[in-house]
Amino acid sequence: MAALQRLADSQTAGEQGPVAVAYSGGADSTALLLAAWRLWPQRVCALHVNHNLQPAAADFERHVRRVCADWGIPLRVRQVRPTPAARDSLEAVAREARYAALASLAREAGASTVWLAHHRQDQVETLLLALTRGAGLPGLAGMPRHMRRHGIGFLRPWLDVDGAALRAWLDAHGVSYVDDPSNQDQRHTRNRIRHRLLPVLQESFPAFAQTFARSARHAAQAQALLEEMAQADLQAIGQPPNIRRLQALSEPRQANVLRLWLRQAGARQASEAQLQQVLRQIAACRTRGHRIHLRVGQGYLWRQGEVLLYKPDEGAAGPNL
Ligand SMILES: Nc1ncnc2c1ncn2[C@@H]1O[C@H](COP(=O)(O)OP(=O)(O)OP(=O)(O)O)[C@@H](O)[C@H]1O
């Protein structure tokens, strides 16, 4: 609660609006709801999203409704039915649908920020997941403490808090919560990390959760710097990017600014090999007749005169998840 209060003081100083907690019914968000309710009994409200993805979803919703009724906390529930397109993972689509629903519920409740209950171990899992996918700095930065999506702020006040301490706190108060059976399903990489890898790490490196989280913070800071540099370089090379001005930058800076431009142009899932190919073509582009036409992400990048253009495939443009 002290961690929550400190963060709330710094983040929401002067704000008197509702404190909207994303409440799944699981242990962590139950602890967050309880802590917020104790700190701001009149201001807290709960937001729940029913993904309708598993038979237990209806039980979660019933549980959430009962707890909120018992504690006298206003609750808003939204039904979503995530349907992934061929190349998307169900998890990613469900997550995106959840954020959109939470933002919309927060707006209805008059809240400017949604509070999420991710804690230190969630951050470590996210970092390890990113490593298994060969992520770059944005992935290694882990989950941000705050972000904006769909016009609403999202805050993770407990990123530095130990998950076991939260559960112990709930048990000490005799508060019930639901256990999501899908968290046991070891077909999901995250669950294998949680159940098999983390116990071994804990045994060998007792402070790993803190040190991994610190590494994520370092990566986040470096990534913020790269973003700033990409913004400045994009200004300098123009939009669409001028090839000669791009060539004046070092190769890492070219890659950095191209990633930003491609993202803004709607290029989803551009691979490392594709970006390398683009860089090679830019380096080789020294004559008027040099042609560039490359598949990048779900779309095409080509040269037109002095500049590069990009067009996503029909229906492929969208947010990078
Ligand atoms: N269905 C949902 N409705 C509202 N908020 C949710 C929902 N699912 C997740 N969240 C929010 O996102 C956070 C992280 O989600 P995650 O899937 O890791 O948690 P969980 O295991 O479902 O629940 P918990 O974190 O409460 O134990 C949750 O702590 C909660 O704040």
Question: Tell me, what is the CATH class of the largest domain?
Answer: Alpha Beta
Number of helices: 12
Gross morphology = elongated
Element order, helices and strands? HEHEHEHEHHEEHHHHHHEEE
CATH homology superfamily of the largest domain: HUPs
Classify the beta-strand content into a percent band.
5-15%
Helix content: 40-55%
Spatial ordering of strands, largest sheet: 3-2-1-4-6-5
Structural domain tally: 2
Q: Biggest sheet, open or closed, and with what strands and sense? A: 6 strands, mixed
Number of strands: 9
Radius of gyration: 22 Å
Bound molecules: adenosine-5'-triphosphate
Q: Helix- and strand-based class?
A: alpha/beta
Mean pLDDT: 91
In the predicted model, the low-confidence regions spanning at least 5 consecutive residues are none
- Looking at the structure, the CATH topology of the largest domain is Rossmann fold
> What is the terminal-to-terminal distance?
31 Å
Structural overview:
This protein is of the alpha/beta class and 321 residues long. The chain has twelve helices and nine strands. It has a six-stranded mixed beta sheet, with helices on both faces. A hairpin with a 3-residue loop joins strand 7 (293-295) and strand 8. The radius of gyration is 22 Å and the shape is elongated. The mean pLDDT is 91. The structure holds adenosine-5'-triphosphate. The site of adenosine-5'-triphosphate has 17 residues, from helix 2 and strand 2.
